[in-house]
Write a sequence for this structure.
């Protein structure tokens, strides 16, 4: 997978060189290139923003620096013969989740256009449709100062799903929100040595070596946590995906079955 990121703050993408993603780059699985938008500014002050037509607060990123930056990347992609996906992090995009991460993990070339201020002149994305599949994505219902951190979030969630990056493909299928997992529950508690720490002990069942009992305990705890913290995940799960032990637990937590769903 190839990833290009265009930003006025290239240093913001420094974490892309660390950890899992850094290793994936050293292994040649992924290449990340960060580009400074100001290198495509057209005046001697390297200006990349201007006041919005129609008035209003803040500044809008100018079309021409973005047009030139994206043209340069599109030219390289044409040589390679792949049509890249242009991901535009914006609070007005479709909402990012694990299914979107899986979709992006299948794309050969991702380009991130990180806007600041009030956004990028809208003609840039219209023009980009000639060379890119344009994909405006939000990472949630809150407002960031710019797209850089959102790009990092999307890159991290996506690249760990690229074949070979994790090294342990089982842990991907096991993720709480992995598409294709029948029901989505949040993960329960985890423990490591020592079995006693301060005045706290690891639950006996986890130390028992009884794998079936441990699996049941983990599922109970995941179900408890999900019922408290993310009740909508339970409400959206078809009732047949809860076994009789799940159903007893949900009932004990004050839930009841209604028209094929569990509700409070
Ligand atoms: Cl993708 N960008 C910005 N600037 N703010 C956001 C966001 C993205 N997602 C949520 N808030």
């Amino acid at each position: 997978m190839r990833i290009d990121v265009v930003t006025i703050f290239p240093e913001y993408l420094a974490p892309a060189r660390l950890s899992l993603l850094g290793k994936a780059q050293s292994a040649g699985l992924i290449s990340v290139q960060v580009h400074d938008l100001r290198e495509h500014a057209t005046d001697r002050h390297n200006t990349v923003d201007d006041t919005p037509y129609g008035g209003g607060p803040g500044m809008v990123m100018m079309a021409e620096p973005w047009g030139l930056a994206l043209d340069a990347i599109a030219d390289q992609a044409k040589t390679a013969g792949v049509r890249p996906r242009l991901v535009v992090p914006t609070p007005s995009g479709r909402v990012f989740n694990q299914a979107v991460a899986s979709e992006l993990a299948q794309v050969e070339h991702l380009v991130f256009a990180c806007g600041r201020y009030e956004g990028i002149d809208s003609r840039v994305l219209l023009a980009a449709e000639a060379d890119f599949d344009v994909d405006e994505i939000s990472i949630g219902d809150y407002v960031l100062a710019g797209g850089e951190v959102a790009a990092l979030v999307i890159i991290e969630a996506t690249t760990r799903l690229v074949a070979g990056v994790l090294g342990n493909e089982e842990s991907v299928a096991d993720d709480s929100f992995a598409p294709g997992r029948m029901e989505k529950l949040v993960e329960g508690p985890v423990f490591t040595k020592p079995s006693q720490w301060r005045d706290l002990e690891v639950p006996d069942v986890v130390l028992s070596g009884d794998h079936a009992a441990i699996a049941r305990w983990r599922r109970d705890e995941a179900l408890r946590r999900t019922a408290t913290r993310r009740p909508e995940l339970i409400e959206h799960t078809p009732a047949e995906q809860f076994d009789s032990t799940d159903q007893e637990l949900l009932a004990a937590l004050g839930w009841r079955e209604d028209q094929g769903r569990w509700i409070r």
In short: The radius of gyration is 23 Å. The chain has a mean pLDDT of 95.
